[in-house]
Design a protein that fits this description.
Blueprint (H helix, E strand, L loop, with lengths): L7 E3 L9 H13 L5 H4 L8 H14 L3 E6 L8 E7 L13 E6 L8 H15 L8 E6 L4 H5 L36 H13 L3 E7 L9 E5 L2 H4 L1 H20 L5 E3 L12 E2 L8 H5 L5 E7 L5 H21 L1 H16 L3 E8 L5 E14 L6 E18 L2 E8 L3 E4 L4 H9 L5 E2 L4 E15 L10 E15 L4 E4 L5 H8 L25 H14 L1 H13 L1 H5 L1 H10 L14 E3 L1
Parallel strand pairs: 4-5, 4-6, 6-10, 7-8, 9-13
Antiparallel strand pairs: 1-2, 2-3, 3-5, 7-10, 11-14, 12-13, 15-19, 15-20, 16-19, 17-18
């Protein structure tokens, strides 16, 4: 069984002894440094290049003991992820650090959406220099630029609708993946490195900084919290009833308007809109599988770059303050959620908007126009900034599960499914290999129906609307096949990936497509004699066969259809076809 090997190369902080005069000289020199970012040095419309960003953090780490920088993993571009940590006290990563609020920031997942890159550089500087004073209970960590390859693909044109900066990176990574769709399937080295970062820090709060697209409105800032019903339990309630209102109120006190992410396209927001569902393929959906409080910052593409960057910085500042001040309730909500999910008998999946519930926003938009375009001759929705409005607007931010999954005591993963085992291991999932060959009574899924995308999506043709049938059977398993207990912190990750009907399961992402194709067939002239014998020996089978021939003319006219129908019911039919190769054990 192969193991993935990832590089963990911390940048060592070198302490050099010096005389008191030398120490004083260094302190004076450090105090005189301004640590200005490229954004601040320019006209407010520039973003740091990759090299400028990393060099800036190296400078901070060299001058301030509160800042450390390390390299983790490799990306598809061949460079590691640089992770920067700030803390006013020493960090022991071997300790759970449960007396500290751990905040992880992700920047540059889409490098053209660079607001967070510049905002976090300034914020880390303000923390290090004491301009922003925080308690010793804060560990603030940031991935400097997540999409390294995309950041090197610098241009001034691919963000067609965006108002600045002057140049920026490209959305696709070095292999042209959109990394914010890759957290479950983990096709990229970036995603695998992120898993290392995430499970090392185990953050209480996670922020991914973005820039929005879509409608026009008055706000510079919008937020996209992980969907509270899908997050579930105490953590979901904490996001909805405590954390989100506290952040909105804190920004309002700074005269910064913010609204939920405006999830509409080609229509006016004042008709109402729903919360965006952040499935586990997305960063906040992934982190929510361990009950982390997740937030995507979405600044508005048409607003000035300077306003967007400063607004992003303000959001992070207030999140630090809220997390530090409310650490007890935050930790309690997350822990209660871990306990609640491990005690569930059924796990909810496949959420849909609950139209019977809605909150009301005092939404600040612009009147929409639906006029005939001079260019195309067809109607086109536009917005008139000379007609601002403040209008009560329904916001559908409640979701309900359409299905649920019976939670077993264990999942059984055959050792031949090494790609699944590797991802489980990468995500700190506890596994127990069988110590000897065993026969066990398990539940087995057969795939009864599914739909496959007709066009490629992030390197895959995903399956949707999966229908399965669950049956009980005795099956033989080999020594070193793997038992995956569900009573562990990663229970949500286990179910979301291993249950084929889950919206971002490994089955959806084509991990098991080999079972969707028959490997053996039959020759009609050979199998016909066997088919006759089957009908002669089984009157019930013959009755079904004869009835089908009477009611289905196409079936009656086709030798192959009739023989195939019988072959599917014979002992010759291969058991692996449409049989899902992960099992449930109670």
């Amino acid at each position: 069984m192969k193991k993935l090997i990832y590089l963990l190369i911390p940048v060592l902080l070198i302490n050099v002894s010096c005389t008191s005069d030398q120490k004083n000289a260094k302190e004076i020199a450090t105090a005189r440094k301004e640590y200005k970012t490229p954004f601040e040095k320019g006209n407010g419309n520039q973003t740091a290049t990759y090299e400028e960003c990393i060099d800036f953090y190296k400078s901070l780490a060299a001058d301030f003991g509160s800042v450390t920088i390390e390299e983790i993993g490799l990306t598809d571009f061949g460079k590691p992820l640089h992770v920067i940590h700030f803390s006013n006290s020493a960090i022991d990563w071997k300790s759970p650090n449960e007396n500290k609020v751990k905040i992880l920031i992700n920047n540059g997942i889409h490098p053209g959406e660079s607001d967070g890159i510049d905002a976090t550089m300034m914020l880390m500087r303000d923390l290090a220099t004491g301009v922003l004073k925080v308690d010793k209970n804060v560990i603030f960590s940031s991935i400097a630029i997540y999409n390294v390859g995309g950041s090197f693909n610098r241009n001034s044109s691919t963000r067609t609708n965006q108002n600045g900066p002057e140049s920026y990176g490209f959305r696709g990574n070095a292999r042209n993946y959109d990394l914010n769709r890759d957290f479950i399937k983990a096709d990229s080295r970036n995603a695998r490195a992120f898993a290392q970062v995430y499970h090392k820090i185990k953050p209480d709060i996670f922020i991914d900084n973005h820039v929005s697209n879509g409608a026009d409105y008055q706000y510079t800032l919008t937020h996209l919290f992980t969907q509270h019903n899908r997050l579930g339990a105490a953590a979901g309630n904490y996001v909805h009833n405590s954390f989100q209102p506290a952040l909105e109120q804190a920004l309002e006190s700074r005269s910064l308007d913010i609204t939920p992410y405006v999830n509409v396209h080609n229509q006016s927001p004042d008709k109402g809109f729903s919360q965006f569902m952040d499935y586990p393929r997305y960063s906040t959906g992934y982190t929510s599988l361990w009950n982390t409080i997740g937030l995507m910052v979405e600044t508005h593409m048409l607003k000035p770059y300077q306003d967007r960057v400063l607004g992003t910085k303000a959001i992070m500042e207030e999140v630090i303050k809220i997390g530090s001040a409310d650490i007890k309730n935050l930790k309690k909500a997350r822990q209660e959620s871990f306990t609640a999910f491990q005690n569930l008998k059924y796990y909810p999946i496949n959420f849909e908007v609950d139209k019977s519930k809605a909150d009301t926003l005092n939404f600040k938009g612009y009147e929409s126009l639906n006029e005939v375009s001079d260019l195309t001759g067809n109607k086109l929705t536009t917005y008139d900034r000379t007609q601002p409005y403040n209008r009560k607007t329904p916001f559908y931010n409640y979701f309900k599960a359409k299905d649920s999954i019976r939670i077993p005591e264990y999942y059984v993963v055959p050792q031949g499914r090494w790609e699944v085992i590797e991802l489980l291991r990468l995500n700190n999932i506890i596994m127990k290999p069988l110590t000897k060959d065993s026969i066990m009574t398990v539940s087995e899924y057969s795939i009864k129906d599914y739909k496959t995308a007709s066009s490629a999506y992030e390197g895959h043709y995903p399956h949707n609307d999966v229908v399965v049938k669950e049956t009980s059977k005795k099956a033989g398993f080999l020594q070193s096949d793997v038992l995956v207990p569900t009573a562990q912190p990663g229970i949500k990750y286990i179910i979301e990936t291993l249950e084929p009907a889950a919206p971002d399961s490994f089955f959806k992402w084509n991990f098991f497509d080999a079972i969707l194709q028959q490997k053996e067939g039959f020759s009609a002239y050979v199998f016909e004699s066997t088919a006759k014998q089957m009908l002669a020996e089984d009157p019930i089978l013959k009755k079904k066969f004869d009835s089908l021939r009477k009611v289905d003319k196409d079936f009656a006219r086709s030798n192959n259809a009739q023989l195939n129908w019988l072959h599917e019911r014979s002992k010759n039919y291969e058991k692996a076809f449409l049989t899902y190769p992960i099992y449930k054990l109670n």
